[in-house]
């Protein structure tokens, strides 16, 4: 894979991240200003398909920088990322969102 292609994919990831940042910021603001008794916080195990430590680190950072989520721990074998989520009424949807928005693009950059 050429460096130009990786730069383009990295820029795409940046645009996706900014979109998630805005969307999550609005969602967290609504949750904080609304009835917070309805929140369902959770710690979720996200199975990883990334192969490199750099990829896993980038994913953990993307998750932590997105409002409403925090990366807690990566398993020793790099197969699972544990994430705290402010509101997760459907944990499977959170896993799917992380995998489709960030992990898929990071896998493409890994090559």
Automatic annotation (TrEMBL):
The keyword Transmembrane helix applies. The keyword Magnesium does not apply. InterPro entries: Cation_antiport_E. It holds the Pfam family MNHE. It is found in: Cell membrane. Its main location: membrane. Keywords: Cell membrane, Membrane, Transmembrane, Transmembrane helix. It is a multi-pass membrane protein. It comes from the Bacteria. Belongs to the CPA3 antiporters (TC 2.A.63) subunit E family. This is Sodium:proton antiporter. It comes from Rhizobium rhizophilum.
């Amino acid at each position: 894979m050429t460096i130009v292609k990786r730069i383009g994919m990295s820029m795409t990831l940046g645009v996706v991240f900014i979109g998630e940042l805005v969307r999550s910021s609005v969602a967290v603001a609504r949750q904080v200003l609304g009835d917070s008794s309805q929140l369902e916080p959770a710690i979720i195990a996200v199975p990883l398909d990334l192969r490199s430590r750099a990829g896993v680190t980038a994913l953990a950072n993307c998750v932590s920088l997105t409002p409403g989520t925090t990366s807690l721990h990566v398993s020793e074998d790099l197969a699972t990322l544990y994430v705290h989520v402010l509101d997760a009424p459907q944990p499977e949807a959170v896993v799917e969102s992380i995998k489709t928005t960030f992990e898929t693009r990071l896998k493409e950059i890994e090559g």
